[in-house]
Amino acid sequence: MTSSQFLSFTTFAYLGASILYLAGVTFRTTKALRAASWVGLAAAVANGAGILLRWKESYDLGYGHAPLSNLYESLVFGAWCIMLIYLVLEKKTGHRSLGIVPSLIAFLAMAYASFSPDVSSKIQPLLPALKSNWLIAHVVTCFLGYAAFAISFGISGLYLWQRRKGLSGNPAGPLKLLPDVRELEEYNYQMILFGFLWLSVGIITGSVWANSAWGSYWSWDPKETWSLITWLIYAAVLHARAVRGWQGPRVAWLSMLGFCSVLFTYFGVNFLLSGLHSYATK
Amino acid sequence: MSPSTGTSSSSLSTLWQKLGSLRFTLLLFFILTFGCVLGTLFPQGVGERQLLSQFSPSTVKWITTLQLHDLYHSLWFQALLGLLSLNLIVCTLQRLPKTVALLQHREEFLDPRKLSKFSLSCTLRVPSGLPHARQAVEQVVRSKVGPLNQLHAPQDSFAFVVERGRWTRYMVYVVHLSVLIIFFGALLGSLFGFKGMMNVAEGETNNRVFLSRGHRQVVLPFQVRCDDFHVSYYDTGAPEEFRSDLVILEDGREVLRRSIRVNDPLTYKGVTFYQASYGAILKEAKVQFTDKESGETITLDLAFREPVPFADSGRMMELVDFAEDLSGFGKAVAVVTYREGEQPKGSWILVERPDFHGNRVDRYAVKVLDLNQAHYTGLQVKRDPGVVIVITGFILLLAGLLTTFYTQHRKIFIWAQATNPGTTLILAARSSKKSLAFEREFQHLCERIREHLTNPRKES
Ligand code: HEM
């Protein structure tokens, strides 16, 4: 089988998983939720296999590089990170209902990578500027951070929803299968810590790499600046928790804003602003 | 003390409180974030002329007043970073003594009434006697948490404290210190370093660096020679590698010889050379001139920018410029001719289109017979004495984040009293992370102790 076959299976499996998660929560059937987890796991395995195969295929073509070098590859890798981190979270918390948003985002990333005319899935040779082991360290760490923030975005949404229901009476309806507000807040905080740590590692590896490749550890390139913006927003989230009157919903909103900044760092900068990190120009 | 000094000292102390407050931190974070966003919306590092081509004159006036076109180096942005550092320092000065005091405080004995008011506490009434209870507590707690510290307690009772990860309370200070270290390193770099570009043609030597900021030049105390510049391509036509073979010379003597590539720079005496760009230059051209009137032909070897006498006419010919690709017409050389007391005349001569009717200077048709070209390598040259400090800050930051996020300071208090028959135990706990996970861990611990003391089969 080829990597693209694995990856198209992955796309549909993520779709299946997100439908099952949603169905499980709406119709309150744990059976659907359990199925969702298994489909999600299968999709993640296929996603990983697809990435490894693509790596091998790039060697067969004579280019030989880790599949992290263009928009397509990074979307595929991003989807994988989201699902892997989510599955670990699910295992640790035992709450399958948290999977709605992560599986949906993983599906959207894969679908965009596969079907958008802006994204080329061709294996291309590496530009000289990207030929470095730092590329792997930088991209992997940034994506672990982004993925954790994506999951935190989902949890924040559930938190705000659950809280509104909680305030307007007893949490009835679909929300019964969701964790309570206090748990959601804690998982959200865990994800933000994880994301913040990896985003910091990502920014630092990028910076050390830039220093060794171009002689400047920080040059205010738009992508760099936007990753700093994201970092500042999450730093604000961490500190906001310690200020009275800033806990709860405000932290959740701020963390959702942080994820918007992640999206802008990733897509907006590529498509709207120019700079060094121009992987989406073709 | 007069009332006025009283108010001013109290307003000073509120100012001090505000300077170190987290609300001020949040405010600074938001303004900085907003500033960074602005900086990505306006073109950075461009001149006024370029701005005028994009924006209306009144907008340009705003942009230049607020320095939005060089935002990250503007005074107000740097002032914000300064305020953030101040905020951090003041905050640390306010909190660190409290943390130290908290950690130095050691209980001499426990007060059961206080313990039962902790948000994490549990009371167990068990049938076992005091010695057995004590043995069970010691056994379970030691295996689950760590070694116990016994406190003074009256007869018929005992008290223990278990504490883990006291040091982790300091790690958030390490995170904050690392931020200050990074700022300090960046400041050092901007005060005592430089960054610029230097072009060296193949076979030539250079020691002048044009700085990227402020139209200045730095003359290096040694020379750089480029022996060869080489580009290789993939089958697709995309560049695969850029390489310059460099030699460092001191007083004309070779001291170092190395090739640099993108991602593989050379550092000598604190100055680092990075492969940044390249280009082609012209060294010499063989040019044929045909007099349109007499049909007479003269061929000259013109070295770049060196005037050559044109036969005996008293006229000079000079190659003044070279273009790798002139508006899509391929290579072109600019030839100029002049005579004493005359305006120079000149034109671009298209090398690859010898029949082009514009290939003429004065009354001569010009044809380029041969080009002797070379490459130059574009080196980015940098000296930054702050890098080591910044990288130290990075490492500290990561170590600090990892430990603040994933370790915690936990303290568990255990008090027990014989209440014949049986024993009453009170357990209470506190942790630096008020997490659910710790709450569960604590409940689990209580549960284990209760099981141990109520389930006789486990007594052995
Ligand atoms: C870019 C700069 C900063 C970074 C990266 C940073 C990072 C952090 C981190 C990672 C934590 C731990 C949060 C947690 O465990 O939830 C923290 C906590 C804290 N920070 Fe900062 N910080 C910065 C600036 C500041 C400033 C300027 C202040 C000044 C007041 C400050 C005050 C605090 C305080 C008081 C805490 C403890 C909060 C608590 O009790 O939970 N930080 N900081």
TrEMBL record, chain A:
Residues 68-277 form the Cytochrome c assembly protein domain. Keywords: Cytochrome c-type biogenesis, Membrane, Thylakoid, Transmembrane, Transmembrane helix. GO terms for molecular function: heme binding; heme transmembrane transporter activity. The keyword GTP-binding does not apply. It is found in: Membrane. Its main location: membrane. Required for the export of heme to the periplasm for the biogenesis of c-type cytochromes. NCBIfam families: cytochr_II_ccsB. This is Heme exporter protein C.
TrEMBL record, chain B:
The keyword Protease does not apply. One of its GO terms (cellular component) is membrane. Residues 22-300, 354-443 form the ResB-like domain. It is a multi-pass membrane protein. It is found in: Membrane. GO terms for biological process: cytochrome complex assembly. Keywords: Cytochrome c-type biogenesis, Membrane, Transmembrane, Transmembrane helix. It comes from the Bacteria. The chain crosses the membrane at residues 21-42, 75-96, 170-194, 386-406. The keyword rRNA processing does not apply. This is Cytochrome c biogenesis protein.
